[in-house]
# Entry
Amino acid sequence: MGEATLFDLLLVIALLTTALRAFWAKGSFEAVFSLLFFGFFMAMAWMRLGAADIALVEAAIGAGLTAAILMEVLRVVGSSSFATYRVEGVWMLPAAAFLGFLIASAFRLLPPFAAPEGAYSATLEALSQSAIGNPVTAVLLDFRSYDTLLEVGVLLFAAFAVAKLSGPVADRFEKRRTMLSFLSSHLAPVLALVAGYLLYQGMDGSGGAFQASALLAAAGVLFSLSGQPLARQEALESRFWLMGSGFVFFFLVGIALALKQGHLLAYAPQWQSAAILSIEIALTFSLAYALLVLYWRIAHAGKAR
Amino acid sequence: MSLFWLFALSGSGLFILGLLATAFRTRALEKLIALNIAGSGVFLFFVALAGRSDPPDPVLQAMVLTGIVVSVALTGLGALLIRRQMTEGGGDDG
# Structure
């Protein structure tokens, strides 16, 4: 990583401006839109930092889905004074100053550049022996697959909680929006195709289950917004527990490997690529399903009354 | 100034400012937004740290990738709770 260019400086200024704009927003509307632009600039920052995998996820999930969910809430909550809390955080000021001091001291403790030691060089060595070309995919589904399994569990847990708390969902599609339904029916096949490509490419290049599922979820959000229901959307929504299937598959593969190899999710070299690809395919559908349930249930909660 | 310092410092700044905004904004939805930005600050710091070595450290990048997914889970659950509170009346002084 080299010296910062003028572009990087402008990017950081844009990040800070949109963030401060969100912090000092006059209302929720301004805050949500500032976050949308903030996410967009974050995706550019990831590219500058050489993290294309993260940029893809940030653009689709961080900026896209998060903003879509918040806008759905905004539509209901608006700028009303509901869900308003008193500020009881004056003690936060000295706490934040102390935290800043701690972070500044942590900067001074950082080891110097170009010190490839310990965990980093061990990772690089293991990577050179791995059949998976994309280092991030190798870390996610091989070296630290246990972490990924639990992290998928966290998302599913949140989606289950949302599905359970949202109550009965009814009266879903108020009106068809012609422009959007044209756009969604023409864009969705392209999004599905790109998702498939990213999923497969994730073995050797940028991409993978998380990126692919984010794109599939984006296609679903587009359909939902257009007022044109996805085929079988009702069935998908009422069988939301099916979104757990990818997690269960991941877990069962882990158990099977544990019985055979003696360690949870320890792949035998000859099965590594096949096992990882099949887990990624199962995870893509499961994660896309969970992200969509998150969006659908929030967008349509409480309308039954 | 190197890329590392630029992004690591702004990440730290975003984190601290985001925490403060989480405490000082009064509406739950705006608290959720501030918390999201504070989280992004942490991610920015992590990826800047990963980029100090060449090739970038994939472990830190993978942690940030999963972190983004966890933060959308947090946002979704928070958003639903806010929406429920709205439809059923609430807010501790609203």
